[in-house]
Amino acid sequence: MELELIVMKIITHSGNAKSDAMEAIQAAKAAKTNEAHELIDKAEQELLAAHRVQTDLIQQEARGEKADISLLLIHAQDHLMNAITFKDLAKEFVALYEEISCHSLK
């Protein structure tokens, strides 16, 4: 697969994951817990897709098929790492909003 296509797939899936995670926070804030959890699941699926693309690239390199390190590839890796972090934080926010919601009902 062409390196530019690989890079764009990583960026696209990572961006989708980050968007889903942000929507999950907003859903939890609006007390839409089920929707928030579904969005976190969607984010995790997008990250899994991005990770598969990344793993393919790593396996190619392990077989001796070296990829050129480009600014675009570094940018894609940056997007992926940020999306993973953002998803992890979104899970914490969702849990926090659930806790707040539980306590306000008492």
From TrEMBL:
Q: Which CDD domains match?
A: PTS_IIA_lac
Q: Which Gene3D superfamilies match?
A: Phosphotransferase system, lactose/cellobiose-type IIA subunit (1.20.58.80)
Question: Pfam family of this protein, just one?
Answer: PTS_IIA
Residues bearing Phosphohistidine are 75
Which InterPro entries does this chain map to? PTS_IIA_lac/cel, PTS_IIA_lac/cel_sf
- What is this protein called in UniProt? PTS system cellobiose-specific IIA component
Keywords, A to Z, come to: Phosphotransferase system, Sugar transport, Transferase, Transport
SUPFAM superfamilies per record: Enzyme IIa from lactose specific PTS, IIa-lac (SSF46973)
